C-alpha cells in the first residue's frame, strides 16, 4: 500500500521549496531519488502556513550558479518542466534561484 513517501505510480505529489538567499541557488530536494516526468511550479511562498504570491520571480534549472537557470516562475504564475519522452528528471539535480530571499515555489509533480 502506498504511503506519503511512496505514492501510487502516476499519482500527483505536492511539495514546497523556500529559497533562503538571492545569491545561492538551492537544490529543490536535499537527497537524490525523487524522480519526475513532469512538474508544475507555482510562484508562491508558504508564509506562516499561508500561500502568498511571490514578489519576485524564481528561476528553476540544473545550475548551481546564480543567474544561470532558465525556467522562470513569475509571481503568482506557473511554469512546467517536462523530461524528454522515456526519461525522468530528479529534483536533486534541479535548483531554485530566487530574486527575493525567503520566497520559493510550490511544486506538483507526477510520480
Order of helices and strands: EEEEEEEEEEEE
CATH architecture: Sandwich
Which percent range fits the helix content? under 10%
Tell me the β content: 35-45%
Cα Rg: 13 Å
Structural class: mainly beta
In CATH's first tier, which class applies? Mainly Beta
Uncertain spans: none
What overall geometry do the principal axes of the alpha carbons give? globular
Domain tally: 1
Mean pLDDT rating: 90
What's the N-to-C terminus distance? Answer: 15 Å
Instruction: Report on the biggest sheet.
Output: 4 strands, antiparallel
Look up the CATH topology. Jelly Rolls
Which SSEs are present, and which pair or pack?
Layout (H helix, E strand, L loop, with lengths): L11 E7 L7 E2 L7 E2 L1 E5 L1 E4 L2 E4 L4 E4 L9 E3 L4 E5 L6 E2 L4 E4 L5 E7 L1
Antiparallel strand pairs: 1-12, 2-11, 3-10, 4-9, 4-12, 5-6, 7-8, 7-11
Amino acid at each position: 500500500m502506498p504511503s506519503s513517501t511512496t505514492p501510487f505510480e502516476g499519482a500527483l505529489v505536492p511539495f514546497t521549496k523556500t529559497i533562503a538567499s538571492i545569491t545561492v541557488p538551492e537544490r529543490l530536494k536535499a537527497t537524490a531519488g525523487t524522480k519526475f516526468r513532469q512538474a508544475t511550479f507555482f510562484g508562491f511562498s508558504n508564509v506562516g502556513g499561508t500561500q502568498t504570491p511571490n514578489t519576485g520571480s524564481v528561476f528553476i534549472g540544473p545550475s548551481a550558479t546564480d543567474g544561470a537557470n532558465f525556467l522562470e516562475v513569475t509571481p503568482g504564475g506557473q511554469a512546467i518542466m517536462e523530461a524528454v519522452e522515456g526519461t525522468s528528471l530528479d529534483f536533486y539535480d534541479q535548483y531554485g534561484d530566487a530574486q527575493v530571499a525567503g520566497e520559493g515555489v510550490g511544486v506538483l509533480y507526477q510520480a
